[in-house]
Design brief:
Blueprint (H helix, E strand, L loop, with lengths): L8 E10 L2 E11 L4 E5 L6 H8 L7 E6 L2 E2 L5 H11 E5 L10 H7 L8 H14 L15 H13 L5 E5 L7 H16 L3 E5 L3 H6 L2 E6 L2 E5 L17
Parallel strand pairs: 3-8, 3-9, 6-7, 7-8
Antiparallel strand pairs: 1-2, 1-4, 4-5, 9-10
Helix pairs in contact: 3-4, 3-5, 4-5, 5-6
The structure holds adenosine-5'-triphosphate (ATP) and magnesium ion.
Amino acid sequence: MTVQSHPVVDLAGASKTYGDVTALRSADLLIRPGELLAVVGPSGSGKSTMLNIMGTLDRPSSGRVRIAGHDIDALSDRELSALRAGTIGFVFQQFHLSSGVPALDSVADGLLYSGRPRSERRRVAERALRRVGLGHRMYHQPHQLSGGEKQRVAIARAVAGDPPLLLADEPTGALDSRSGAVVMELLHELHESGTTVVVITHDRDIAASLPREVRLKDGKIEHDSSLGAASTALVPEEALR
Ligand SMILES: Nc1ncnc2c1ncn2[C@@H]1O[C@H](COP(=O)(O)OP(=O)(O)OP(=O)(O)O)[C@@H](O)[C@H]1O
Ligand SMILES: [Mg+2]
């Protein structure tokens, strides 16, 4: 079996508690290579918690998490960082770009852990910025970019190393509808080129426009459109494989 044929994300009974708050309750979620899906739900329903667990930024309190075939329980923090660096790109609502840093450096710095020499990092960063339509903004700092452009720099940084999985937490949340549409178009293009893309969104139209929708409520997956009308809780885990 090649790594490609593994699910990209495989959560089984994954839970996360913070003190007496259960942020994620026994989530079962299987994401296959090349999928594009929306994660929706009210504020506080556990969307970011689940994304952080899929992204290995956080370990679950209980349950199993496999990313690209790797059981994350079996990995040290160091091995987990290496898996994350090579496998997962992140995009957040607030862009997370350092002030004063030109776009080209922001993107190139995202490749620091790839082991590539500096000149190559800059070459790859240039290509990524062109890919998101910012070939003419390489040397602009965040305060010289529009919101939509900042988010495109963040996407360029997330995908410069060609990770198979892109996780986006409300990537259009801080944008006007036109810039949001450009960002969504970009995510569709990445999906078409083979990247698996998970998008958290509050926007019903965006969610409805994606091939799969996973809905959270009170930390529980209450609906997964890939499973039809049945509640996930009623589907035995093995039946999903
Ligand atoms: N580090 C933490 N410590 C304590 N409680 C937390 C922590 N992180 C999240 N929570 C709680 O877990 C629940 C789920 O939070 P989460 O951030 O996953 O929600 P969300 O669905 O992403 O919400 P939003 O749409 O507002 O971003 C919330 O009730 C939140 O207060
Ligand atoms: Mg959130």
